[in-house]
Design goal:
About 35% of the residues lie in helices and about 15% in strands. The protein is built from 12 helices and 11 strands. It is globular, with a radius of gyration of 20 Å. Bound molecules: adenosine monophosphate and manganese (II) ion (MN) (2 copies). Adenosine monophosphate (AMP) binds next to helix 10, strand 10 and strand 11.
């Protein structure tokens, strides 16, 4: 593997972004853009914006990504591809919104992509990123990977178009909860203002991002009937099971939607959403989504469960069934509440 270059903190961020823009701009071979499994608005938005920017510079680009139904309107079908079994010859792999590890999707043998690629660039805003790659820019002070991609596109010899700005703004919108979360800095709003000025159809975009299939609302009813308030009401917990899926049929069941609703339960410092994952192998898996406030770290809870994310929003996939996962999660939440100085009633 080639040597690794990485930004170490805010001071080196502009240089790191410039270096990435220069590397991408000079790359003659194909560029593969990859992001995390279960892509959200930032994963798809940042990847699509970067792909379109590089394609307009004449690069051969690949975006092996399957969006959830509610985001698929953003991309033209021919812009996305199935997962790549092998990397093209002389490929630069740009890894967005995730690290080189098991959550990386669309590229072969996720864990070894760095040795198979000619060059690997990592662009992410998760502090828990493992910083593996040839050129790594991780900046937790950026609200979204799309904000970092905007900085990269600004550094490329390109004119902004609505086709570039719309997916970029989508990443900012979705990762800030429509500019409501604590990551909504003045810089985020300035970046959003720039993107709007490039011709985004804003109310059409925000309206379209809210559309869900009717089955989603049927599932929402079932999910809301599972809500409990454990740990003396300091947590709100909801779940989705395989049995519920069998009844309603497959839905997008975006964890962000459900956990985003129950996080407003009065008195709850932590919102938890557990999703029993479909699994062919005998080992069950449960996806955990955590949102937290007031000194409680969702990141600490999820790191202790083998996952990662941000202080206010984090996730993990636990190799246990729903009930086993629930016990582990509640123990981790209790420990974090105690660490943060809250009195937690005994179970
Ligand atoms: P989610 O609950 O899936 O919306 O995820 C919340 C945040 O945590 C997002 O920023 C995710 O990228 C991150 N995240 C979710 N699952 C994991 C995981 N297994 N490992 C690391 N980060 C995760
Ligand atoms: Mn993401
Ligand atoms: Mn993100």
């Amino acid at each position: 593997m080639m040597s690794t270059e990485s930004n170490q903190g805010e001071a080196n961020y502009p240089a790191c972004i410039a270096r990435i823009a220069q590397t991408l701009g000079r790359w003659d071979g194909p560029i593969v853009i990859a992001t995390h499994a279960d892509p959200d608005g930032d994963a798809l938005g940042s990847a699509l914006a970067l792909k379109r920017a590089l394609a307009s510079l004449g690069k051969a680009t690949h975006l092996p990504l399957t969006p959830p139904r509610y985001l698929s309107f953003l991309a033209e079908p021919d812009e996305l591809s199935d997962p790549l079994r092998v990397l093209p010859e002389d490929a630069l792999v740009a890894v967005l919104d995730v690290d080189v590890g098991p959550r990386l999707a669309g590229v072969p043998v996720a864990g070894t992509v760095v040795s198979e690629a000619a060059f690997t660039v990592v662009i992410d805003h998760h502090g828990t990123n493992n910083r593996t790659g040839n050129l790594v820019c991780v900046e937790p002070r950026r609200a979204a990977t799309a904000q970092m991609v905007k900085d990269i596109i600004d550094a490329l010899p390109l004119t902004w178009t609505p086709q570039l700005a719309t997916p970029c703004l989508t990443g900012l919108l979705t990762d800030t909860g429509n500019f409501r979360f604590g990551n909504t800095t003045p810089e985020v709003l300035h970046a959003a203002g720039d993107l709007l000025s490039y011709g985004v159809a804003y109310s059409d975009l925000t309206d379209r991002l809210g559309w869900r299939h009717p089955d989603y609302f049927r599932m929402l009813g079932k999910v809301m009937s599972t809500v409990t308030f454990p740990l003396g009401g300091l947590a709100a917990l909801a779940e989705i099971t395989q049995a519920m899926r069998a009844e309603v049929g497959p839905t997008d069941d975006d964890s962000n939607d459900y956990v985003g609703l129950i996080r407003y339960a009065e008195g709850a410092l932590v919102a938890l959403f557990l999703r029993e994952e479909p699994s062919d192998d005998p080992q069950p898996r449960t996806k955990v989504s955590v949102r937290a406030r007031r000194g409680v770290s969702a990141q600490a809870i999820c790191v202790s469960l083998g996952g990662g994310g941000h202080v206010a929003a984090a996730g993990a996939t636990v190799r246990e069934g729903l009930e086993g996962t629930k016990a582990l999660v509640l123990a981790a939440v209790r420990a974090e509440l105690v660490r943060a100085g809250y009195d937690v009633p005994e179970a």
